[in-house]
Write a structure and sequence with these properties.
2 copies of one chain form a homodimer. Chain A is α+β, with helices and mostly antiparallel strands and about 240 residues long. Helix content of chain A is about 40%, strand content about 20%. Chain A binds a DNA duplex (30 and 30 nucleotides) through helix 3.
Chain lengths: ~240, ~240
DNA sequence: AACTGTTTGTTCGATTATAGAACACAATTG
DNA sequence: CAATTGTGTTCTATAATCGAACAAACAGTT
């Protein structure tokens, strides 16, 4: 009987893996869960879940409402603060500028295996359009302009070697010599996106992107603004 | 030799606690760390740190740069997405409105033991003033307008019973019947803040606040805008 | 109302799997 | 070459697990 037989991840330390799994389940569930529900979702005994939860609670990674139900805690926000902190601080003013001049939601997404994760978002001042991207939201790397832009930072050869599982989208090659990626109706119906690659030394490949319903500007102009902003961000990060 | 003798937290599951501790250290360190540095900071053997880090890496809670140094990973952003998600989504448009009409940075902070943690922030469009609050930043509950506002949601008696360790600030009583809290030079020299309490059903007590260098408006007017916004947020969350 | 059955939160102790330390070797970097 | 780091061993003490048991809240029934 190998260790970690039942768990999805075959990580060396089971308890840590389970604790993280609990947080993932909680983040995914849009509502507070009882301990029994969470133990069930984790596939462990209630007592096991209970002990894990208490540890997480000690670190404020998890809080409990009046009914005893558990939900993600403020400690997670503190930990997330450190994620690409340099990139976040450098990108924020540029995102604000982009959002307001283009009247589009602007955001930075970073590459994470077969997904890309939205890090920071800024909505335009006159937010007639609803927010479509939230920090922490994920999309497949193969769907949407940000993912294509990230792919386009690599030649096809290198990409294939780097991540064998994920095909290199043909649009990436196109985006590579054009300098930006565009998508329509891919992630969210009716929503389009334009993105440019963003490379920071020592950090994951990322993308600078905007989303919009109907473009008031020429895509090339938008892309030019994005490229300019990306250049400034990269320059600031040395 | 009792278990968990050396660790700060006496949590039931040591490994999970250490894994979280590693993330906390990484979030606090403003730069990537080598495994040896991190193991040293954790006070454990390198091999121990190594196994923990590999587990964290499996979940994208931690990534490694080219030199093998570790830093917080995108998975944390995903987990943090779930923290008071309802509050975040409900507050965001109101924060944008406040930031732009008052030309101040607006944010929501939630109570976490002896601290309050900034959740969402929105900077004004013309961000002449630098960002002073970032999501995930923490301050003592006893310092600054947000903390006082959170205290002011409770009568002094109840507060003392709730958190024996932390004194009830006299300003909280004042803020309680005035409806808002104000602070100057407390957290950051030269920066002032105005905050109102924010209560959401099933969630932690929180505060809606703005920070500014020099106020162009009357504090009472600012507070009125905050109160209005808080009322709308609370109404939306039912 | 009292009684009973059910569900949930919590605790406890014995068993066993698991983490931890030390060692060794490869791969790097200066 | 030396020093640091990545990676894998092995073995034993320890910490996590499991299951059961206790406590408390709640619903239904007589």
């Amino acid at each position: 009987m190998t260790p970690n037989a039942g768990t999805a991840q075959a990580s060396p330390s089971q308890t840590l893996s389970r604790g993280i799994r609990a947080l993932e389940i909680l983040a995914e569930a849009q509502q507070p869960l009882t301990i029994a529900e969470l133990a069930d979702a984790m596939g462990v005994h209630r007592s096991v879940a209970y002990r894990i939860l208490r540890t997480l609670e000690d670190h404020s990674l998890l809080v409990r409402d009046d009914g005893g139900r558990v939900q993600p805690g403020p400690g997670l926000a503190v930990l997330a603060r450190g994620v690409s902190r340099n990139l976040q601080t450098a990108a924020l003013p540029e995102l604000t500028l982009l959002a307001n001049t283009l009247t589009m939601s602007a955001f930075v997404a970073v590459w994470d295996r077969e997904e890309c994760v939205t890090l920071v978002t800024v909505d335009p001042r006159h937010s007639g359009a609803a927010v479509v991207q939230h920090p922490g939201s994920r999309h497949p790397i193969s769907a949407g302009a940000p993912g294509i832009a990230i792919q386009s930072a690599f030649p096809e050869q290198e990409w294939r070697a780097l991540v064998p599982g994920i095909p290199y989208r043909s649009e990436a090659a196109e985006a590579r010599h054009r300098g930006y990626a565009a998508s329509h109706d891919e992630v969210i119906p009716g929503v389009s996106s334009i993105a440019v690659p963003l490379r920071v030394p020592g950090g994951r490949p990322a993308a600078l992107a905007v989303v919009y319903i109907r473009a008031a500007q020429d895509p090339d102009e938008v892309a030019a603004a994005l490229t300019e902003a990306a250049r400034r961000i990269e320059a600031q990060l040395g």
